[in-house]
Prior knowledge:
- By secondary structure, this protein is α+β, with helices and mostly antiparallel strands.
- It has helices at residues 21-40, 65-71, 77-93, 97-116, 121-142, 151-162, 172-184, 262-285, 299-307, 318-328, 380-403, 412-425, 432-443, 445-453, 458-470, 488-491, 497-515, and strands spanning 2-4, 7-9, 17-20, 50-53, 59-62, 144-145, 186-189, 192-195, 200-206, 214-216, 218-221, 233-242, 290-293, 311-313, 332-333, 345-355, 358-364, 371-377, 405-408, 476-478, 485-487, 494-496, 519-522.
- It folds into three domains: 13-145 and 407-520, GroEL-like equatorial domain (GROEL, domain 1); 151-217 and 374-403, TCP-1-like chaperonin intermediate domain (GROEL, domain 2, 2-Layer Sandwich), CATH 3.30.260.10; 219-368, GroEL.
- The strands form eight sheets. Strands 11, 12, 13, 14, 15, 16 and 17 form a seven-stranded mixed sheet that branches. It has a three-stranded antiparallel sheet with strand order 6-19-22, sandwiched between helices.
- Helix 5 crosses helix 13 and helix 5 packs antiparallel against helix 17 (497-515).
Amino acid sequence: MAGLSGQPILILREGARREKGKEAMENNIMAARAVAEAVKSTLGPRGMDKLMVDSLGDVTITNDGVTILREMDVQHPAAKMVVEAAKTQNDEVGDGTTTTAVIIGELLKKAEELIKMDVHPTVIVTGYDLASKKAVEVLESLAFDVSKDDRDLLEKIAFTAMTGKFAGTLSTKLAEYVVKMVLSTVEETDGKTVVDLKKIIVEKKPGESTEDSELVEGLIIDKDRVHSNMPKSIEHAKIALINAALEAKDPETKTEITITSSDQFKMFANREKARIREVADKVIASGANVVFCQKGIEDLAQHHLAKAGVMALRRVKRTDMKRLARATGANIMTNLDEMTPEDLGDAGLVEDRKVGGGHLTFVTGVAKGTVSLLLRGGTEQVVNNLEIALDDALHAVAAAVEDQKMVAGGGATEVELSLRLKEYAATLEGREQLATDRFADVLDEIPKSLADNAGLDSIDKLVAIKSRHEAGEKTSGLDVYTGEVVDMREMGVIEPLRVKVQAIRSATDATSLILRIDDVIASKRTEMPPGGGMPGAGMGGGMGGMPPGMM
């Protein structure tokens, strides 16, 4: 409401809420920090898990940062920025989501302290930006090289990314599989190494143990043959990919058929059978002995194909059809009349195997660079957690192969960054120095959280790590299993440089965005009047309703 010559003027709709200045900032910081705190205890290989139950009663148990944040169903707009930052981190590099959220929470905590000291938010944002750029510069100087031919190092990166994401003992075999899968998809484009993770297929089947997971050089299709009389395996397969139903075509226009005698019905039924046989004969005539159909296959067509020794699968997913086309060289056909032997693909072996409680079809002997992993685990929850850990490891190894740079883990890199930023802050003038100095303190929170989550004294361990770094041991970090400060590089606890750089940038950007908000206006949700008419006029009606309490 504003006043002009004593006359009140309504600016916002009645019931709208507005928070300004420090009140708005404090509420935004509180909400964002609450989200960050929710995932802080999951950081590191000894982090705790979260159990979440959705509105349908489905249970999720995980310590993966981005999975937790997605399932939390956050409502507060400032808190959503933390979730978006974590999602960006996951989309860009596939790992480091919890680290990003923790850094945002701590940056906001330090900013709140500075605001109480009358440091303007714009000055804090400027200081944080200077610190972020310096941190990236220092990170690049701390990185050491890794080659795609150094499989041992790449396996250590994969193992580091997976550690702590799974409630059991991880097998080194999985890390080996991750490296093989990533290297099989490496391509050289314009002098750059590029990894296409879309070529990698992971099929989950509960049952057995993690050790029974199997790497296949080819494709795994979660379908089985449609008829029991069809062959279970076919060598030197000629593969037809069909995006059309193998059944009699229905008339394109409305048709009415009048049958007055049993002979006429018999003629009609025979004609239908002949049309279905005709469809099956077209497939057989092309020379195909394996058929992947994206749509349905009529029972009679199944019988004719089985009689001709053809293996057929129906309702194959569109993504699987595209992968089959890329791997076998087959063309996806929508018109059987146009199908020729040149449209068929080749595979060394197509085999229907019983796995767990169902069947899977394995297509091997195809184009190089096509790999699949059959992921096994005792329960569905175990397999789902394994898949999340595997995804993190795939992205971590892909980033290391593309950038060929890595840094030490276990809090070693963050402690070195903290010390170097403290030195940098001392060279600055003005209040930006305070923000940069606080940024350095924030990075200490990563090794402290690792220690806390492992049941260790965080202050003692941080002091021990810093003393080693001041002595020149730049890769010394915390072994959370023994509580000792050791050389992370020698121990094999290493991470891609890209993960650390993106975490710093994402966290700084999200924090700056939250700190620059000094006015929050939440309009009351507009109720539609009876009859569906337009609601009453008034500014702010289309801004959407923000729930009471905004969280």
